[in-house]
Amino acid sequence: MNFLTVTRATLAKDIRLEWRSKDAINAMLFFSLLVVVIFSFAFDPTAEESRRIAGGLVWVAFLFAAIVALNQTWARELRNQVLDAYRVSPAPAIPLFLAKAVGNFIFVAALEALMTPLFIAFYRLRPLGPGWQLIPIAILGTWALVVNGTFFAAMSLRTRAREIMLPLLLFPLSIPALLGMVNSTTAILTGETSPAFWIALLVAYDVVFTTACLLLFETVLEAE
Amino acid sequence: MKRGFTILAVLTALLLSFSLYAALVLAPTEQTMGNVQRIFYYHVPSAWVAFQLFLINFVASVIYMIRRSTKADIVALVTAEVGVVFCTVVLITGPIWARPVWGIWWTWDLRLTLTLVLWLIYVSYLVLRRFSSSSQTPLLAAVLAIFGALDVPLVYFSIWFFRTQHPAPVIGGGGSLDPRMGWVLVSNWIAFMALAWLICWTRYQLEVAQRAVHEAEAMQSLMEGAR
Question: Which of A110, B97, B108, B179 is spaced 20 to 30 A from A2 at the CA atom?
Fold first, then answer.
C-alpha cells in the first residue's frame, strides 16, 4: 500500500472523528481556560513582571492540555480491536504514526490559536522583540510535544494506569524542548535577548526525536 | 560463583572502611571550606558510579534491542535501579555541602540540573518497568532508555547556555587538586565501584531467581489446568 494513501486515510479518519465528536478539542479548551484563570489568580497578571513568566504559563497550559489529546490518540483504536486489525494488515507502520502525530499537531495547534488571544488579553501581552518569530517557535514547540507524546502514548497503551503513565514518561524527556519554548517566548516578549539559540535547540530536538520515533515506532507497535 | 561473591564482599568491606578512614582522617583539611569539604569524597565517586551505571544501562538496552537477550535486559534493569540509588546519594550530599559553602541549598546550574534531569528520566524508566506487566516490558524499557540517552546532550546544551556555578570538574577540568586529596578520591571511587558491582551482582542473581520462580509457577498452573 502506498505510503501517502495510508497517511491521508488515517489522518482524514481522525479529523472526521474529531470533527463529529469534538471530544478532545472541547476538553482541551476548557482545561487550558481553567489553567489560564487559575494562574491569573495565583500571579498578578497585570504586573510588569508577568511579562517574564507569561511564556512559561502559556506553554505549561498547552503542555497539560495536549496530554488530553495525546491520551485518546490510541485509546480510540483499542475499541473494536482496530489496532490489532492494523497490525495484521499489510499497511506499513510509519504512515500510521505520522498520521497520528500530524493529527495531534492539528488539534493542539487549533487549541493554541484559540487560546493565545485570551492569554494576550488577560496578561496584556505585547511582544517587545520580533513578534513574527513566535510563529516558528509555536510550530517547532508544538511538534516537539506531539511527536514524542504520540510515541509514548503508544508505549503506555501496554501498561496499567496508562493515562497516568503518559505524562510520567513524556515530561522528563520534554525538559529541553520546554526550556527552548519557554525561553524563546520569553526572549521575544521581553525583547531583552535573542531567541536564536533556543530556536536552534528546538530544531535539533525535533530532528533527533522525529527520527528516533520513526525508526522505533514499528518495534513498539508490533510488540506483543 | 559463591566464592567469588564472598571475595568481592570482603574486598568491598575492606576498601570501604579504608576509604572512610582516608577521607575522614588521612586527607588534609581544606583551607577555606574546612571539614565540610570531606563530603566531596562521597559526592564525586557516587556521581561517577551513577553515570557509569547509566552508561551500562544504555549499552545493555541497545544490545537488548539488537539481540533480544534476557541477560542484557536484566543488566539494564539492575544498573538502572542501582544507578538511581547512587544518583540520589549525589543529589542529597550536594545540597548538604552547598548550604555552608555557597550559602544556598540548590542552584540551577549545568551539572546540578543535568544530574536532576537524568535522575528524573531514570525514575520514569523504573516507573515504566513497574507499571508495565507483560512480556513486552523489556522492549518498552529499552526504547525509553534509548530516548533518554538521546535527551542527555540536548539537556546539556540547553543548560550550558546559563552561567555555571558548580566547581569545575576535578579531572580534566583544569581545576587543581592536592595530590594528597587526589588519592583519597580515587580510593573512594574504587571502593564505591566495588560496592556498586557487589549490589548489582546480588540484584542480578535475585532477578534471575525471581524470573525462574515466576516461570515455574506459570508452568505449574498450566499443568494443573491441563489435568
Answer: A110
